[in-house]
Amino acid sequence: MVGADLGRRILTTNDEARFPLLAQDILSRGDWFFPTLNGAVYHNKPILLAWLIALVSWPAGHVTQFTAVIPSAAAGFAMALLIFGVGREMFGTEAGMYAALVAVTMQGAFMHARIPMPDMLMTAFMTVGLWMLWRMTRGAPRAWIGFYACVGLAFWAKGPGGFLPLLIAGAWAIASRSSASWRALALPRGVPLLVALVAPWPVFRLFRYSEGLRQAVVHNQILWYLPQELRPGMVAEPVQNAFGILFPWVLLLPLVLVESVRLLRRRDAERDALFLLIVAAATMFVAIALSQQQRFRYYLPLVPPVSLLIGWWADGVLSRRLALKIPWRVCLAVGALLLTAGVAGVFSRRNALSEVSMVWPAYVAQAIVLVATIAAIAMALGLSARDRRLRRAFAAAWVGCAVLVGSSYHWELERRNAAYDYAGLHARMEPLLRESSVVATLGLADMPLSFYLRRTVVPAGTARSLREIGDKDSPAVAIVTDRELPALKDGDGFTVLMRDRLALRPIVVVAYRTTPSARP
């Protein structure tokens, strides 16, 4: 599941190309602590992923589309093994196996194990942190070292988002309502260890790049995530994103939650494990849902606790410890919530009606797949419960989920790669690139262009700012969208060299000469 289509996905956004470019800069300049993007030192996030990409790309001497995703794939593989380990310790070997199988066939985990972004790496460290937190609740003497170390590593993977396990630990202690729970967290010893692990990143930058660090911390981290306004999509987007990350196993979640909540009345180790997992999943969802910025990938850390809950439920049902009951009222309520969130999410976006009119066949196809999946799961549960063939039903469901997730990703990959033919654009532009000292772009993502053209591509905010990029009177080319072309006047020195297509829209390559900036 980790190796399918690995390395074939073209990097199409700035977020996807950012860390491969940082890794390439590390290999090119040899500066492992202060890599640059477009000539400016990068401060927004810690650079652990860039280091790992640089290490696996070192033998080749440069970062490739394949080497860029190896750390994410390894993190996805490790996450599955870690989920098996946690599940085995919490509920037994069978439950751990089911949980790991569920995790690798969740849409979010499958997709992000093939994208060179830090979310999968952070999630792997969070999984270890969840394992260590469970051991801390059981009184393991040195588990606190592993917990706080993993929180520190999660920070090095993606910044402040890596502190989410601390929030989970605090929520668990509050919900437990006992002083022993707070003592189990070992805060007087753990917090200094965490500070020692995290401090090198801001301290090294404080002495050399204090202004850049302040800008990154205040504007790109704190103010970026803090809620600032009420939006129509604030309720719909979290539900949609969590559903997409956990699909298709999220369809079993109503059954799992009803059974797990029912067992919280007991007092044993199984109940304690369920309580921790429910608190972890709920805390993650609420904390991420309250963020001003909503992204699909932000909900990836939900995969480990939800997979463990489903693995526990599957083991209980297959071993006949739990009765297979379908809470139809709960399922209908969840279905109504998802339908409402979907409609609200679509119509809360700008130009929603025009978007729906353009892509309605895709929405219809997704709806058909979703309804067919729900019907297949309901039929399998009903028939297997009647014929007592639950293990075969789980095996068939897992194979079906693997095929569904893998084939859906492959279909989208082929469509995406055909639309973003950066390699073909590079081949067609190669003669122009040899004669130009400056390459700029207007209206397109600059980092994917930089990665595939193998040179810096500077983004320009406006047509006027194109001339201010580079040295005085330098030959330059710019890759612009057809929408931006009318702003470039022919009489102002811009010459159209070639026309092409990228991202399903026409683009134009123009030649011009730069001028010095008039700004101080």
Task: Tell me what you see in this structure.
There is one protein chain. The protein has 520 residues and is of the alpha/beta class. Helices cover 63% and strands 7% of the residues. It contains 22 helices and seven strands. The chain has a five-stranded mixed beta sheet with strand order 4-3-5-7-6, with helices on one face. A two-stranded antiparallel ribbon has the order 1-2. Helix 1 crosses helix 2, helix 3 runs antiparallel to helix 4 and helix 15 runs antiparallel to helix 16. The chain is globular. It starts with 13 loop residues before the first helix and ends in a 7-residue tail after the last strand.
What's the SSE blueprint?
Layout: H1 14-29, E1 36-37, E2 40-41, H2 48-57, H3 70-91, H4 93-104, H5 107-112, H6 119-137, H7 143-158, H8 164-176, H9 179-184, H10 187-198, H11 200-208, H12 210-225, H13 233-246, H14 253-263, H15 269-289, H16 303-318, H17 328-347, H18 352-387, H19 390-419, H20 422-434, E3 438-442, H21 446-453, E4 458-459, H22 463-466, E5 475-481, E6 495-502, E7 505-513
Parallel strand pairs: 3-4, 3-5
Antiparallel strand pairs: 1-2, 5-7, 6-7
**Largest sheet at a glance?**
5 strands, mixed
Report the C-alpha radius of gyration, rounded.
Answer: 25 Å
Biggest β-sheet: strands ordered side by side in the sheet = 4-3-5-7-6
Q: What's the count of strands?
A: 7
Envelope shape: globular
Helix proportion = 55-70%
Beta-strand share of residues: 5-15%
Task: Provide the residue-averaged pLDDT.
Answer: 85
Number of helices: 22
The parts where pLDDT drops under 50 for at least 5 residues are 352-362
Element order, helices and strands? HEEHHHHHHHHHHHHHHHHHHHEHEHEEE
Span between termini: 54 Å
Based on secondary structure, the structural category is: alpha/beta
